[in-house]
């Protein structure tokens, strides 16, 4: 019984079968819908706004993509952001800006390392480990900060946001470069393919001699480090480090990754999909704000759109599986 | 539903007509028909991948059918769930896959009852379970409160059987129920099948072990590549050759691509030498050597620890002893990547769970071992592209579907891709665990040819297989494992399926025979041995020597030509009395179990001047000691 040699479908058919293309279509539909409802939506100013609002959540979502690709999840990113923000705020009192940022990022990476080791070496469930880290991180953020926001952040820090290159702000450029690097890493390097293989079939990856242990830990380290990077950009804008910062950030990040087509079982997903997922999330929130929808209703709107997008995706897959 | 059908109802109990089923790109069944009467054991035969299991699962409601007709007691049967099939009186004894490992033996036996509404009575269940196990003669061997995950493979199989008996279904399907049972347990199962048949149950016996088919079935239906090619033939009128011809559609020799010349082995360089490998509790003492250009078979029953031994060798499982030498140099393999960098490849048994990475493309699946071996930041795919093209051509694989998902390929194509994955690293040693499991017959013979080619190119090939026929067809030498120990290392030409079955029996199930040898040796001051005997070969299964016995160079698991033993005359004569060879006197007694199966010979060799007792007396003693020899406490350990 040889498998039938299915004819290659025509280009439009192949495109529609690519998840990223379908999600990009969804993003465009949302953009068109919102621009019809609010004339302000498609102005250049607002587009920069959307990109600016995408930076923090977008950076965190990259780390989350790495973790979810291995079949894990990182619920601690919000708390780690809060805690490393406090670390940054405190470090800035004594250290020059680059060293202070390095300290915050190192702290985030260290927390990720602990989570990763607990998950990969000791085999604890990622959900539980990072839930624990989430509680610990937030609690330490309050303790280190003395329960209040740290102000007096040097204004020169804001250069990392407001410097522009060809009219594009530095934080947006950083975001795009980060996505480019992450995409290249996941597609063209041994480590990136190992992350996919580990998430898709850990046993097979192990039997083929891949470094399953190392690449199960690395995504948590990246996730922790990027949470610190994200909060650095946030603090640079508001010039204050709040122990409550990053609250519920993990939910937005997970939602963006999942809208981008990643499977929570691991092995499936892409960094481009995540970028589209981030843009969809931010656009909806931005549009609802423009239309003056009460913040209390925004959760309902965003939640419904996430669930509908996933449902549509599942129905599409059922149909094409036949 | 617990009343078996009354006899006068002469129509068939179950009729399947032109059943078809497709899984993804694989047409598992295309035109399968089957007719089973009440009160018969109906053999459902076919090679691996012929669709036996699929048809069984359709009848039992595990999967739906795409087309075709299914009549049960003259009424259309369309079970949409196992529950519906169970309610109409149809039960499946699966290959130990349908147990809940965390539940107890008792709960597993009554698992189908847990799905029914109403209260459960544990005391009642316990009583019924004891009854069933007593019928199986295993009440002492299966503690009801034991968790199933702690049972041996054979014990799990017994739980499966007990589970079907608890349902008292009218139609029972036994899907390869003997795969992990010892010969005596098989005999007992056959007794039960005979009893169920007399009570008017309709039984379907799925197997590819021909010996068993002849022992137990009344009629057989043979499937080949999803089609019924022979329907309801009387077993009594068939020969093995007939069945094989139907099963494979050609003569057996054509499937196995073994050139006759190379099978003698000769003095070739050893490539991989494994000594006293252990990975407790499953792997206890494994030693074997494989040479350049050789195909070595590892035989044994399911659960003998063969896969585990290879996984331990490959670094997939922690080892706690043993040495591994590659081309004479001792190597330390802690992780699979160490083995891969030393040039050892391993095609693991479970394709879906251990080999295929479903979310990666065919190309990346093929490159996976290369990626594991690769030292560098990038992928290094491009440097291997030429070799990939060569391999694809060599294995007869399409080159235009490299970006598809491997899951859209048939089982045989998947297996070829996985083999290509390992050939890509140009291995010195390639280990394949059940390489033709779930592979259609056409690809199977292609895989055998590929194995031969690989070996001819100088690779040392190790093949694990539970299919003894396959082992005999493909290998040059077979190492037999039982209970985690390598117990024999024999050239393939002197082996048969029957001999392998005896050799592979769990050591624990032969304790009584070994005790018999010791008793005989002690009581008569002799060297006692147990062997399979033929014109030109003797395969020793066990020995025991008294202190005063003459030294006889015979070890368990060893094969000799009778003329190379010190007792050629006795072996040739096989007389009722004592035969002397020079200074040695030998007495031979045939060994049979309760069902009359030939279990070889018991021999007693002593110095010619020590008086051996009366031959008749020894024969009686052997009979007395072996009368219950199939009542084995094997798996009670």
TrEMBL record, chain A:
<protein>
    <submittedName>
        <fullName>Ribose transport system permease protein</fullName>
    </submittedName>
</protein>
<feature type="transmembrane region" description="Helical">
    <location>
        <begin position="23"/>
        <end position="43"/>
    </location>
</feature>
<feature type="transmembrane region" description="Helical">
    <location>
        <begin position="217"/>
        <end position="239"/>
    </location>
</feature>
<feature type="transmembrane region" description="Helical">
    <location>
        <begin position="99"/>
        <end position="121"/>
    </location>
</feature>
<keyword id="KW-1003">Cell membrane</keyword>
<feature type="transmembrane region" description="Helical">
    <location>
        <begin position="157"/>
        <end position="186"/>
    </location>
</feature>
<dbReference type="GO" id="GO:0005886">
    <property type="term" value="C:plasma membrane"/>
</dbReference>
<feature type="transmembrane region" description="Helical">
    <location>
        <begin position="127"/>
        <end position="145"/>
    </location>
</feature>
<keyword id="KW-0813">Transport</keyword>
<keyword id="KW-0997">Cell inner membrane</keyword>
<feature type="transmembrane region" description="Helical">
    <location>
        <begin position="251"/>
        <end position="284"/>
    </location>
</feature>
<keyword id="KW-0472">Membrane</keyword>
<dbReference type="GO" id="GO:0022857">
    <property type="term" value="F:transmembrane transporter activity"/>
</dbReference>
<feature type="transmembrane region" description="Helical">
    <location>
        <begin position="296"/>
        <end position="316"/>
    </location>
</feature>
<feature type="transmembrane region" description="Helical">
    <location>
        <begin position="50"/>
        <end position="69"/>
    </location>
</feature>
<keyword id="KW-1133">Transmembrane helix</keyword>
<dbReference type="InterPro" id="IPR001851">
    <property type="entry name" value="ABC_transp_permease"/>
</dbReference>
<dbReference type="Pfam" id="PF02653">
    <property type="entry name" value="BPD_transp_2"/>
</dbReference>
<keyword id="KW-0812">Transmembrane</keyword>
TrEMBL record, chain B:
<dbReference type="InterPro" id="IPR050107">
    <property type="entry name" value="ABC_carbohydrate_import_ATPase"/>
</dbReference>
<keyword id="KW-0067">ATP-binding</keyword>
<keyword id="KW-0677">Repeat</keyword>
<dbReference type="Pfam" id="PF00005">
    <property type="entry name" value="ABC_tran"/>
</dbReference>
<keyword id="KW-0762">Sugar transport</keyword>
<keyword id="KW-0813">Transport</keyword>
<dbReference type="InterPro" id="IPR017871">
    <property type="entry name" value="ABC_transporter-like_CS"/>
</dbReference>
<dbReference type="InterPro" id="IPR003439">
    <property type="entry name" value="ABC_transporter-like_ATP-bd"/>
</dbReference>
<feature type="domain" description="ABC transporter">
    <location>
        <begin position="14"/>
        <end position="250"/>
    </location>
</feature>
<protein>
    <submittedName>
        <fullName>Ribose transport system ATP-binding protein</fullName>
    </submittedName>
</protein>
<dbReference type="InterPro" id="IPR027417">
    <property type="entry name" value="P-loop_NTPase"/>
</dbReference>
<dbReference type="GO" id="GO:0016887">
    <property type="term" value="F:ATP hydrolysis activity"/>
</dbReference>
<feature type="domain" description="ABC transporter">
    <location>
        <begin position="267"/>
        <end position="508"/>
    </location>
</feature>
<keyword id="KW-0547">Nucleotide-binding</keyword>
<dbReference type="GO" id="GO:0005524">
    <property type="term" value="F:ATP binding"/>
</dbReference>
<dbReference type="InterPro" id="IPR003593">
    <property type="entry name" value="AAA+_ATPase"/>
</dbReference>
